[in-house]
Write a structure and sequence with these properties.
Keywords: Coiled coil, Membrane, Transmembrane, Transmembrane helix. This protein has 694 residues and is mainly alpha-helical. The protein is built from 23 helices and six strands. Strand 2 and strand 3 form a beta hairpin. Helix 8 runs parallel beside helix 10 and helix 21 packs antiparallel against helix 23.
């Protein structure tokens, strides 16, 4: 590299020294002039007196004053002349200094690198093997850097461009993200957990990591889908690209100065190396050096483009710095090989190479500065607009596809009905409103069995087959597994299996599950009477199964809603109600309170059955009209052809619906035509078989 130019401070110091020297000479000259003027004036007066001129000797005061005035005038003139001459001297010396500054000689120092070995190979007293091994190291260095360059340029190394993630995100969102099978115990969809960066994920961890990378790279929050002003990843990527470009630009400068040195070395028939200086160079060595620098420049150029592309495609902030350092290490391979493997004689010869002088002038320096400024601006702007800005837009598009829109629903396909069934899910974990499965797991996680010998909410299956079956059972299958009415035979004192060590824990477990599923927490002892007000709820199936007597499953005159196996009533309890009807008279009989309840909850029951809000439908008014007619007319309303069937299911009230309500013929056998019917319909009480129509 060239030596630094003469500093302006040195020039000022020279000017000050010259000025002090000039002032000293002026003071000496002034004294000499005074003496000369005094002597000359005295000689002039003496001459005039000797020639007889009319001369009047001045008085002591006036004569001396005139003499001194003339001497002062001459002195001032002479001083002005001397000062002008001094200024000319200073100006000439200053111009010489600036001329010296405008053209300087710098020094180019040969680097300790394998690339420098062609300058000395074959010119130093090294053996044949040293020369051969040095050439092999040069070729190895060229091969290593070229191999790294080719590998980095391949698509397999660069990976899939980030914008391809948009299509992957679309496929994931429509195929897996909303699948009901991947809903967690808290009732959240997979997509909501991924976009919340749930650390407990075992599925779609790739998508979760991608969302986390996008948020970190662009500085986004969980629900942000617009590029903010400050983007930490983008800024770091720009800095890494600039750092890598500076490493390559340093290599370019060394190449350019090396070529300049090679070009100015005198050419001759043979290369002459003396006193650690290459005095002349032959044509073969000259061409070899040119090819070496050309290969070096080609590799640097390819690495520059490949490195910028690789860094601009790195979406992980933590990987950016590592990738940048890894790239810079490729350019240092020549130094590693030189320091670790170069033969010592060749290594010492390279290290002892004398620097070569290179001339610089102000015009060349300014041209280089302007060119470097343009290069620096281009290094910042071109990658930003061509690579980084499209990357940020692709990231926003990917996050929108992954997490945009409605996240809180899951979908399943009923292969029998060929319908896509959806379920609304929770948006996030609510510690104050956890599901029964979460509560069950939390209660049993650290249960050693000493405090609670039996699980509080978990019903353990004996084997995997039973576990799978229990998960797939519907309510009808579940209730048919019980041959007894649980409440009357297992929960009430005096029941046949009351206190049984095998049955009692199972019944208490089901009761606790029933209570918790309806929002009643911390139930320690089963008491059906405490939950009677919940029996009419559509979701109280398990409660009706455990507390069949309290919920009216064995009462033929209770509300007809849900008094079927599909809604939780055990067949044994229902059979008890049928037996009561068989022992009673065949006549219309209504318990007014239960009858009122039946028709008051009619719209709510139908809304739950169809999972829609019927109050928003025009048919709601028809439901209210039927309900009011039933409450006012009682069984007689069934004689009206407009009211003898349920409006939505088109099922006759007298016959009942196997999944929704039991037949009203038990309460209204006369109105339903059971009297005198032959054969007697299955929905009619058997007591009507012996009654003939009037």
């Amino acid at each position: 590299m060239p030596s630094p130019l003469v500093e302006p401070l040195d020039l000022q110091r020279d000017i000050l020294a010259l000025r002090e020297e000039l002032q000293l000479n002026l003071r000496r000259l002034e004294a000499r002039l005074r003496r000369l003027e005094t002597r000359g004036l005295e000689d002039e007066i003496s001459a005039q007196s000797m020639c007889g001129d009319d001369f009047v000797a001045p008085s002591d005061d006036n004569g001396d004053e005139r003499v001194e005035m003339k001497m002062e005038e001459k002195l001032q003139l002479d001083l002005r002349g001397v000062e002008l001459e001094a200024k000319d001297v200073i100006s000439k010396k200053t111009m010489q200094q600036f001329d010296h500054l405008s053209e300087q000689e710098g020094q180019f120092h040969f680097g300790a690198s394998v690339w420098t070995m062609p300058f000395v190979i074959g010119l130093v007293p090294a053996g044949l093997w040293d020369v051969t091994f040095s050439i092999l190291l040069l070729l190895l260095n060229l091969g290593l850097q070229a191999a790294f360059t080719v590998i980095i340029l391949t698509d397999a190394f660069m990976g899939v461009p980030f914008w391809h993630q948009i299509n992957y995100a679309k496929r994931w969102r429509v195929s897996m993200a909303h699948d009901y099978q991947y809903m967690d115990l808290a009732g959240r969809s997979l997509v909501s957990r991924v976009c919340a960066m749930d650390g407990a994920l075992i599925l779609s961890t790739t998508q979760a990591s991608l969302v986390e990378q996008i948020n970190s790279f662009l500085g986004l929050q969980e629900g942000d889908f617009e590029v903010p002003f400050f983007q930490p990843g983008l800024l770091l990527c720009m800095l890494c690209i600039l750092f890598w470009s500076l490493c390559v630009y340093k290599e370019y400068r060394n190449i350019w100065l090396g070529l300049e040195v090679v070009w100015q070395i005198p050419h001759s028939e043979e290369s002459i190396f003396r006193d650690s200086t290459l005095r002349s160079i032959c044509k073969v060595r000259f061409k070899a050096l040119l090819l070496t620098y050309l290969a070096r420049a080609t590799i640097a150029t390819l690495l520059l483009g490949a490195g910028i592309r690789w860094l601009a495609g790195t979406t992980s902030i933590t990987d950016l710095m590592l990738n940048c350092v890894a790239l810079s290490a490729i350019l240092d391979i020549d130094e590693f090989l030189f320091a670790g493997f170069t033969p010592i004689l060749v290594q010492v010869a390279v290290q002892n190479l004398n620097p070569v002088k290179i001339k610089y002038d102000r015009l060349r320096s300014q041209r280089e500065s302007f060119g470097l400024l343009i290069l620096l601006i281009g290094t910042l702007l071109i990658p930003y607009f061509l690579l980084l800005q499209p990357l940020a837009e692709s990231m926003i598009s990917v996050k929108t596809e992954l997490c945009g829109g409605n996240q809180n629903f899951v979908v399943g396909l009923n292969s029998e009905t060929q319908q896509a069934i959806a379920l609304a899910t929770k948006s996030r974990v609510d510690a104050s409103n956890r599901t029964i499965t979460e509560l069950a797991v939390d209660r049993h996680t650290f249960n050693t069995g000493s405090e609670e010998p039996y699980p509080y909410l978990l019903d353990f299956a004996p084997n995997a087959r039973a576990f799978d079956q229990n998960l797939k059972w519907d309510m009808t299958t579940e209730v048919t597994q019980w041959g007894r009415c649980i409440e009357t035979e297992a929960l009430q004192p005096g029941g046949p299996v009351y206190g049984d060590p095998l049955i009692q824990p199972m019944v208490e477990l089901m009761f606790r599950n029933a209570a918790v599923s309806l929002g009643v927490m911390n139930v320690d002892a089963p008491g059906c009477a405490d939950l009677q007000h919940l029996c009419s709820l559509p979701d109280a199936r398990l409660l009706r199964m455990v507390c069949g007597a309290t919920c009216g499953c064995n009462d033929p005159y209770a509300s007809a809603w849900h008094k079927v196996p599909a809604q939780g009533c055990i067949p044994d309890c229902l059979q008890s109600a049928t037996a009561q009807l068989a022992a009673s008279t065949c006549e219309d009989r209504i318990v007014q309170e239960e009858w009122e309840l039946t028709w008051n909850i009619y719209p709510d029951v139908m809304s739950a059955f169809y999972s829609i809000d019927v109050s928003t439908s025009p048919i709601y008014h028809s439901l209210l009209g039927l309900s009011n007619a039933m409450k006012s007319a009682g069984c007689a309303a069934l004689n009206n052809s407009n009211f003898d069937y349920e409006i939505l299911t088109r099922t006759r009230w007298c016959e009942g619906h196997p999944k929704l309500f039991r037949p009203l013929a038990g309460q209204c056998p006369v109105t339903c035509g059971c009297v005198g019917a032959s054969p007697l319909p299955a929905y009619c009480p058997s007591s009507c078989a012996a009654v003939t129509s009037p």
